[in-house]
Each structure stands twice: as C-alpha cells, then as structure tokens.
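PROTOCOL LOG
Step 1. Enter all chains and additional molecules of the complex.
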Amino acid sequence: MSYICTYCNGMSALDRSCPKCGGRMSDGGRLEDYTGPYAPYGPIEAGTLTNGYSDWAGHSCIHQAYCSRCGYTDMLPLDEIRA
Ligand SMILES: [Zn+2]
Ligand SMILES: [Zn+2]
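Step 2. Run joint prediction.
Step 3. Record the structure below.
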C-alpha cells in the first residue's frame, strides 16, 4: 500500500496565508528535499527527521512553505492519500 502527496504530484496547490504579513505562502517542496548535503537548513539532519516529527509519522508529507513578501518560512504536514 502506498501513499502519495497530492502537493508533490501537482494535484493540489498550497493555499496558505502568511501568519506574519498575510501574504500568500508558496510551496517550497518536500522537507526531505532539503536534507541532502546541500541543505540550507543546518539544524535538520538526515535521519533524525522521523524522530523530530513523530507526530507526523503517519502519512503526511512535510512541506516547506515560504512567504516571498516577508521571508517567513513554516513547515506544514500535508495529508497524503492512499494510492
Ligand atoms: Zn509532498
Ligand atoms: Zn509574510
């Protein structure tokens, strides 16, 4: 059984408002994409992700969202659907 993220697959579009300035937040992609050797987010280490986000260990895809207006970033657990 597999689950897919509709956001990663272009089936859904992120539609969140920035809590800081009310601007529209853009989907920066899966958080996993940032855990490689070139990750700009130092504190997040590959391998610790599951532990750090055990609450989201279900079938969620963690996305990085960012506001291009004020630079605010957030992590959003997005539900995956059964494929
Ligand atoms: Zn995703
Ligand atoms: Zn903002």
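Step 4. Note key features.
The first strand starts at residue 3 and ends at 5.
The beta strands are 3-5, 16-17, 24-30, 60-67, 73-82.
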